[in-house]
Write a structure and sequence with these properties.
Rossmann fold, UDP-N-acetylmuramoyl-L-alanine:D-glutamate ligase, 3 domains, 6-stranded parallel beta sheet, 17 helices, globular
Length: 451
């Protein structure tokens, strides 16, 4: 019997696959199951419970598939391990039933953009490819039909922690910076090794694409005995690098012949997106995509919401929603990539941020900082002597009105919070949507009326 903990996208997908393969399955969720997922379980006559975990029934399982959000310190997981019941991820389970090749992406920042871009490049090049994983789509459910040649899979460290037999054909590691350390005994080495699990079981015919300019990757990669063919990338050409930038072109030497990819038509901005583009282009080439097809795909790509997403322009001022930037490094990349003067909107639930690395960019580029959160003292202390104007509010409508009053033609109003959103919003998506709606309401509509 398979017990599944968590009835979200991954859990329900795993349950549907287990049922399709003739396995006995039971789903348990400590919270309330969303109606759409509950309907899927009921339609397939899959037994489930919500609002509790019935330990006796779960611990009678031969194997447990758990949601990535459930930590190892949860009582039910500790008891399962004490009974030597295997605890795995939905990705591990789904991959057992697939004949496809897996292109897998992980890293602290940039995973979703790189996953979407890799998928888009292959799709527009004519490949039979599907998305799965941490991007919000269940691999296990797709594997029921298993019609894809490739799955492009975004993987979090939490998913990687419960993957054992899984093997990627092409694996990408973008970067390693401190994040989620509460799940790793506040030890960056433990977190780094979790990320590097993406290389496990790989063979010389598989490819590990990684950022050679990331210090933590270099430090910890030497501790991993991977058999994969190493494919390092970097912004600047140097010894051993297989893909790097030269002007608006990516120069590669990975398929037996040098390739040059023109990226000038790409809408992505900022140094972090140069890294993301390098990784995605390299993966597409290794999968067999032709250079001219990759160039066509770069020109037509549109990133996911809340990631340096333009949401309006009025009176010569551009408004950008970067609500997904919930840590300092993500904000650094946003500030570095924008060349115009910036009205910066930041704040929320601080995650132990050290703003020191942002100060040189703030001094150079930021005209005003508007704090959007309940506790803004740390931002005031960090930037009080760096940014000429600092204001605060707890209203997204007011933050846009303040930004509109402060901005001049040629400026960028940037929501890039560096903080979690839970003080004023449900999540970063809610924060980003609220900002975009306020821009429409207070800026674009008024601009239309003035015409």
């Amino acid at each position: 019997m398979i017990a599944i903990l968590g009835a979200g996208e991954s859990g329900v997908g795993a349950a549907l696959l287990a049922k399709a393969k003739g396995l006995s399955v039971f789903v348990s969720d400590m919270g309330t199951i969303k109606p759409a997922y509950k309907e899927q379980l009921q339609h397939e006559n899959i037994p489930f419970e919500e609002g509790k975990h019935t330990f006796e029934r779960i611990l009678a399982a031969d194997e447990i598939i758990k949601s990535p959000g459930i930590p190892d310190k949860a009582e039910i997981i500790k008891l399962a391990k004490a009974k030597s019941i295997p605890v795995i991820s939905e990705i591990e389970f789904g991959a057992r039933y697939s004949k496809a090749k897996f292109i897998c992406i992980t890293g602290t920042n940039g995973k979703t953009t790189t996953t979407l871009l890799t998928y888009h490049l292959l799709k527009t090049a004519g490949f039979n490819v599907e998305l799965a994983g941490n991007i919000g789509e269940s691999l296990a459910e797709k594997v029921i039909e298993d019609t894809a040649e490739y799955y492009v899979v975004e993987l979090s460290s939490f998913q990687l922690d419960t993957m054992y037999g899984f093997k990627a054909h092409i694996a990408i590691l973008l970067n390693i910076t401190p994040d989620h350390l509460d799940r790793y005994d506040y030890n960056i080495g433990n977190y780094a090794q979790s990320k590097l699990r993406i290389t496990q079981n790989m063979e010389p015919t598989d490819f590990f694409i990684y950022n050679q300019e990331d210090a933590l990757i270099n430090e910890h990669l030497v501790k991993v005995n991977t058999q994969a063919t190493l494919v390092p990338f970097a912004l600047q050409p140097s010894g051993g690098v297989k893909a790097a930038f030269t002007g608006n072109n990516i120069q590669t030497d990975i398929t037996g012949k040098p390739e040059s990819i023109d990226v000038s038509a790409s809408p992505l901005i900022g140094k972090h997106n140069q890294y993301n583009t390098l990784a995605a282009v390299t993966a597409a080439l290794l999968a067999g995509a032709e250079a001219f097809r990759i160039e066509e795909g770069l020109a037509t790509f549109r990133n996911a919401e809340h990631r340096l997403q333009p949401v309006g322009e009025a009176n010569g001022v551009t408004y950008i929603n970067d609500s997904k930037a919930t840590n300092v490094e993500a904000v650094w990349y946003a500030l570095e990539g924008i060349k115009q003067p910036i009205i910066w909107i930041a704040g929320g639930v601080d995650k132990g941020n050290d703003y020191e690395t942002l100060k040189p960019l703030a001094k150079e580029k930021i005209k005003a900082l508007i704090c959007l959160g309940k506790e803004n003292e740390k931002l005031f202390r960090a930037f009080g002597e760096v940014v000429p104007v600092i204001e605060e509010t707890q209203s997204v409508d007011e933050v846009v009105q303040k930004a509109k009053a402060l901005a001049q033609p040629g400026d960028v109003v940037l929501l890039s919070p560096a903080c979690a959103s839970f003080d004023l919003f449900q999540n970063y998506e809610h924060r980003g949507r609220s900002f975009a709606e306020a821009v429409q309401k207070w800026v674009l509509n008024q601009n239309t009326m003035n015409k």
